[in-house]
């Protein structure tokens, strides 16, 4: 079922614009209202704090989701790695709502947290790609991702689907609380889908960047600030898991607190610059690493670009940039793995769903 694609990962990267359009359709009524289970709406309204629980890529989607929910709906959110939460539970608020994000719905670490919080009597919502999965069956409510089966071990379309659904959830919660927003989320997601399509048509350009910036390096750094930082964490995870290049995502401002010691002549540094309020600061960080010999690949957004940027993504709503900026990072990882003859769809030591602790 790969069709003409050499790998599931590439097919799944390409499916992302269609998944966005599917999500728009599934979460919209005929009158262009948001379509969401009333019980979920009520649970979101009733809680005083949201605890997002997830692992790996789904955790990275949660970090982006926190921003949506806090900025739009004004509800405080904590994002926790499932395996940590189980053994080191933070002090909970009075009326917590637990949101589990899981492509497979089977991740053991997340399931353990769900069992625990159910014992404590707290409400739960699972956001998953597999409606009949354990996390979906055992939680009080479910939101579906509609991404279609994800076969490649490295998660791509599930990540962007998770972010889109979290955006819809955040907007719906804002509206339920009487907060007026100055944009139409479905219109903005449609713009995102088009932007994704433009990027998936630029594969040759990205493959060229891999030749130029990641030819033989054993390590690579991803730097960004604000939302871009969270996407950098995901870009680094993609690169390391399939190409085995050691990669880390860093907050631009943290570099000088230690990591910059690792920058030497030719070290690849991939910088994201899609956020207006930190554009100046991240550019400063790029200069700092370039001054120490780094081979800096800047990916910026139309409107914020500079002449030396290697890649510019189309302009989308500032909150939704992760949906678009991650696409070139997924493709960078894909081509880096391909050029190193790695098994793209089935990287060593990894399983698609981690059903043991
Ligand atoms: C990375 C990746 C993993 C999963 C993680 C959680 O590409 O796929 O990090 O995101 O194992 O899996 P789910 O979302 O199924 O709970």
UniProtKB/TrEMBL annotation:
**Catalytic activities:** D-fructose 6-phosphate + L-glutamine = D-glucosamine 6-phosphate + L-glutamate
Q: What does this protein do?
A: Catalyzes the first step in hexosamine metabolism, converting fructose-6P into glucosamine-6P using glutamine as a nitrogen source.
Placed within the complete protein, the shown segment runs 244 to 600 of 600
Its lineage opens with: Bacteria, Bacillati, Bacillota, Bacilli, Bacillales
Its recorded name reads: Glutamine--fructose-6-phosphate aminotransferase [isomerizing]
Question: What top-level branch of life does the organism fall under?
Answer: Bacteria
Q: Which GO terms describe its molecular function?
A: glutamine-fructose-6-phosphate transaminase (isomerizing) activity
Assembly and interactions? Homodimer.
Active site, renumbered: 352
Compartments, record wording: Cytoplasm
Please report the organism this UniProt entry assigns to the protein: Virgibacillus halodenitrificans (Bacillus halodenitrificans)
**Enzyme kind, highest EC tier:** transferase
Keyword line: Aminotransferase, Cytoplasm, Glutamine amidotransferase, Repeat, Transferase
**What EC number(s) are associated with this protein in UniProt?**
2.6.1.16
Domain SIS as annotated: residue spans: 40-179, 206-347
The residues forming a coiled coil are none
């Amino acid at each position: 079922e790969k069709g003409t694609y050499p790998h599931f990962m590439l097919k799944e990267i390409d499916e992302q614009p269609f998944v966005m359009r599917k999500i728009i359709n599934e979460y919209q009524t005929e009158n262009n209202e948001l379509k969401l289970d009333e019980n979920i709406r009520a649970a979101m309204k009733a809680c005083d704090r949201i605890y997002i629980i997830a692992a790996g890529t789904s955790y990275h989607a949660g970090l982006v989701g926190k921003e949506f929910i806090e900025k739009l709906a004004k509800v405080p959110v904590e994002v926790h790695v499932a395996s940590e939460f189980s053994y080191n539970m933070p002090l909970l608020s009075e009326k917590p709502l637990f949101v589990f994000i899981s492509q497979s719905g089977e991740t053991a670490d997340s399931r353990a947290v769900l069992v625990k919080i159910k014992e404590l009597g707290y409400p739960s919502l699972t956001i998953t790609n597999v409606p009949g999965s354990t996390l979906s069956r055992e939680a009080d409510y479910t939101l579906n991702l509609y991404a279609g089966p994800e076969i490649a071990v490295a998660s791509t379309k599930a990540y962007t689907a998770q972010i889109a659904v979290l955006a819809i959830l955040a907007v719906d919660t804002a509206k339920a609380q009487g907060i007026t927003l100055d944009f139409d989320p479905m219109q903005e997601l449609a713009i995102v889908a088009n932007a994704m399509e433009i990027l998936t048509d630029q594969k040759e350009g990205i493959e060229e960047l891999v030749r130029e910036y990641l030819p033989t390096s054993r390590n690579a750094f991803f730097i960004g600030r604000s939302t871009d930082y969270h996407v950098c964490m995901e870009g680094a995870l993609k690169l390391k898991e399939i190409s085995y290049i050691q990669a880390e995502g860093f907050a631009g401002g943290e570099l000088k607190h230690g990591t910059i010691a690792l920058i030497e002549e030719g070290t690849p540094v991939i910088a994201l610059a899609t956020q207006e309020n930190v554009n100046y600061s991240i550019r400063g960080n790029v200069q700092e690493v370039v001054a120490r010999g780094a081979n800096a690949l800047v990916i910026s957004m139309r409107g914020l670009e500079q002449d030396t940027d290697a890649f510019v993504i189309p302009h989308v709503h500032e909150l939704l940039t992760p949906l678009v900026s991650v696409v070139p990072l997924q493709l960078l990882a894909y081509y880096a793995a391909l050029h190193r003859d790695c098994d793209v769809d089935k990287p060593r030591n990894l399983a698609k769903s981690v059903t043991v602790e």
